[in-house]
Design brief:
Elements lengths: L2 E6 L10 H10 L2 E7 L3 H13 L3 E5 L11 H10 L5 E10 L8 H18 L3 E6 L2 H10 L7 E4 L5 H9 L2 E5 L9 H9 L5 E3 L21 H12 L3 H15 L4
Parallel strand pairs: 1-2, 2-3, 3-4, 4-5, 5-6, 6-7, 7-8
The protein binds nickel (II) ion.
Amino acid sequence: MELFDSHCHVDETQFDADRAQVHARMLQAGVGRFAVLGSDLPTSRHAVEYALSHESAVAAIGFHPEYADRCDEASLAALREMAKAPCVKAIGEIGLDYHWPDNPSRETQAAACEAQIALACELSLPVAYHVRDAHMDMIDLLKRNKPRLTGGIMHCFSGSWEIAREYLRLGYYISFAGPVTFKKAPKLQEAAVNVPLDRLLIETDSPYMAPEPVRGRRNEPANVRYVCEKIAALRGMDAEELARVTTENACRVYGLC
Ligand code: NI
């Protein structure tokens, strides 16, 4: 089985104590490649350093909606400079997150997202989006910015099949994480069954979003196999074939093939 974890944070401090074992389990599970994503300037810089020192990793850089208020001109210039590293294959994770009341205002989030879409367009890089409780506004924002869209990934997809279809029409890949394995996720599972095979991705978002049967624990890239097995079972196909196809898709979206 050859797997690609299209979104994780294995470079973060939660893995400092046992990173070597985490990497060993990853290889054992067949996860040959993975993407690490930043959410502000320091974590983006760290993701780049991590990808530079791990051949199997690619990096994405950007400001998560939670940190949208830090995405000023100087920060955008720093991202532009960082993107010169050949391991930087996307802008992300960026987007809209209305879940937490403490997050920056919706206007601030939208402004940061649009500025980073413009940067991605300038650099010809795809975008990895984080969208929580904000699908309708995200779809509107993308439609408004249509000439500047460079494609990319709707990471840890959390919507229905109807919403997935809107993102597919805009040219995006849909990536599923742990929640698709949960028992009470019929809408998400319906989306995972219907997304065309050539637009489907799998991820862990580790250390978050641990899938069944390890739900509630610290997640790690090796667990992407559970996401793969679940979606394969839902679609009535061979897990090995789904691993192959999603790996191919991840390579395509990150410009590795
Ligand atoms: Ni993430």
